[in-house]
Design a protein that fits this description.
Elements lengths: L2 H5 L5 E3 L5 E2 L6 E5 L4 E7 L5 E16 L19 E2 L1 E3 L3 H13 L10 E6 L3 E12 L1
Antiparallel strand pairs: 1-7, 2-6, 3-4, 4-5, 5-9, 7-8, 8-9
Length: 138
Amino acid sequence: MTDGEQNEVKIMTKIFESSIIIHTVPFAKTIIDDKDNTVIVEFDDIDERRRRLCFSPYQAIRIVTADCADYDFIPDDIPIGEYKSYIREVCDSKWIRELKNELQARDPHATFLDNARHFIFDMGESVLEVVATEVEFI
């Protein structure tokens, strides 16, 4: 076992909304509004209905092309051919812990990350991650 293999930890997630399955070709669009501190994600669901999710306020966002993405958020127990793309919420997020450490170093009294949640989406051509306090369909 190499050092990289020893440090590999499967990302634990839960499905955010089980009734919404992201289409295999979701035509995703991400809008970042720094003025309102929101991220709006638009995508097609499996029934080709356009969906919009709003994250506000957001604390961090990460978009990685599918070629470079880490797909450790997909559970191992899904049989081949039965994978469905859901909006997932990361449990015990390492990224949120890192953000809290950075915040603590800058402002030891700040607590706004205490209610932050980490979401992750497989958008076909990319993987999108958002850390935000509130999320709602609009």
